[in-house]
Design goal:
The complex is a heterodimer. Chain A has 17 helices and no strands. In chain A, helix 4 (57-86) packs antiparallel against helix 13 (246-269), helix 5 (94-110) packs antiparallel against helix 6 (116-141) and helix 15 (301-317) runs antiparallel to helix 16. By secondary structure, chain A is an all-alpha fold. By secondary structure, chain B is an all-alpha fold. Chain B contains 13 helices and two strands; from the N terminus they run αααααββαααααααα. Chain B has a two-stranded antiparallel ribbon. In chain B, strand 1 (137-140) and strand 2 (143-146) form a beta hairpin. In chain B, helix 2 packs parallel to helix 4 (92-118). Classes of the chains: A mainly alpha, B mainly alpha. At the A-B interface, helix 7, helix 14 and helix 16 of A face helix 4, helix 10 and helix 13 of B.
Amino acid sequence: MMKKILKNEAVQSLLTSLICILIGMLVGYIVLLLIEPSGAAESIIAVAKNFFGYSRANMRLKHLGTTLVKTAPLIMCSLSVLFSYKVGLFNIGAAGQYVMGACACIYAALGWDWSWLPCMIFAGAVGAAYGMIVGALKAYFNVNEVISGIMLNWIGLYFTNMVLVNVKDASSAYTYTFKAAGKDAILPSLGLDAIFSGNQYVSIAIPLSIIFAILVWVVLNKTKFGFELKATGYNKHAAKYCGMAEKRNIIVSLAISGALAGLAGSFLYQTDIEQWQVTLSSVPGMGFNGIAAAFLGGLNPIGAIFSSFFIQHITEGGSHVDLTIYCSQISELISSLIIYLCGFVGFLKMAMNTALAKSDEKKLAKESAKTEEEKGGDK
Amino acid sequence: MVLLLQYTILFACILTLVALGGCFAEHSGVINLGLEGIMVMGALGGALMMRALPNGTSAFVVVVATIVAALVVGMLYSALLGVAAIHFKADQTIVGTAMNMLGTAAATVIVKSINTINNPDDHSSIVQYIEEKKAFIVNIGGFEFSWFMLVAVIVLIVSYVVLYKTRFGLRLMACGEHPQAADSVGINVYKMRWAGVLISGLLGGLGGIMYITAGVSEWKFEYGVAGFGFLSLAVMIFGKWKPQNIALAAVLFGFFRALSNVYFGFDFLVNLNIPSGVYNMLPYVVSLIVLAFTSKHSSAPKAEGIPYDKGAR
């Protein structure tokens, strides 16, 4: 019975992810211990607890809301990464597509006074176009998508800084708040904010991101289009031989991947929870955390919802460590460790399967030996 | 003009060092996408060494100790890639990406906690080494010669000789082209791949310390190295995995990177009134265009990125 459960693909993915999380947290704890042993246990618990650390129930709900607000874009980023990964492409450029999406929706909202829906669609479209550059370079020029993705991340960052300088006060490094300059562009909340003790940033982005996760699952698993994309990922040449347009598939999948990442930008900035800082000199971590969430979720869209929540949970939790001794980057350290460990998932699963197969074999051998014995008795 | 020349050479040297690191790893059959993280860790090692050395240490000792620290830390960090890619057949893209994130995060945590322990109010991620940094620089009529430049040239020559003129180098390249064939004539593929990865760690670490001591007076570790590890990979691809071509490619990329640092020194460029963001973008745009024209007929090692499996045919 136990073995049957262990052989299940989904259970294996869950188990390996949990192992990655545990080891990641353990190493994080050891790092804290090395820095200063006295507060280490408290701080790692604070990271793991995040909003549970608040004593009052309504504060807990409010901070759960904040975590969820930032989880929604992370889900979109991880969907973006896993979608292209299914097609055999590692879209590290998701970070740049996210930045370009943010740029599009912020400028459309503050510069052109668009309302929320056009802003959101525009962000997705710009992200898609930006992703298509990576796809076209890969399909027609054989450029490694990781390297072109990184280059485009930096280009996108500097471009965004240049564009968004036009929608801010001269005295501040941040763009105007949507509340002040683009009220129509704030995503509607449909009363969801009331559930989270009036957290004003809670919006339809949260349910939308879950709907997108389900959509991605359906497209990948239940449609001919998804099958073709996955076939291209498994073997480009075989797919071409079967009459699939492998070049078109690469470009289309990166366009979809880019659109998802672009929407992530919209889902964060159109809640008005953060403003863009035009002096930013490194690409925001959202896209990279998306990679962590995608792999931690076992490259499954539904898994991505939970893993994104977890990653965001510990990222937020990082700000609850004792900041007089430690620094909040400890949670980045933990999530990057988790990605590193995800590299070993294939090996872990193989080891698990080999162990199971071996014990099965032993059992079979025992049984056959037994029957042999019985047969021998007859003679 | 002198400034442009100085920065071009400086950046070209960094790119050459790191690209050569990538070149060794790829010739052995392992794609090292973690160069960025290795650079950060090497830089951390070197910076902490400079900080630890007492005031008044002779310039020669400072230079040697710093370089050794960067080399060692870079090499140790690259072992993370070696373990995962060589023994556990991990996806090298994921592991490399994780190492980049881990490098920046770990370096920031380490530097911040050192700063905070020394002074509870200090939460910055800056290592103080301005005095020690002067040991690297010799001023020749306005041109600031850095000892790193000499090191880079030596490394370039040594790399060429090692790769093409020694038994070790030829065997290393065999492991990246056809590991099964290499194994069949008695070469230990695992050992060779370890050698490739560790050499890339050494050179990446060296490039890292050179990067943070170049030009900028102080360096915040949370910034990482701004995509330099990946620019180096572009240089490597443009240089067709050959040391001599890599050096030429590095000069081209170094020039555009230097331009973004010193363009305001040229009146005609300032008069064009182009926002500084455009200059910042230039090296990345140029590398994209260059990659588009050079990647079509790739001369990459044939077996790179594929974990070696003794049983496979």
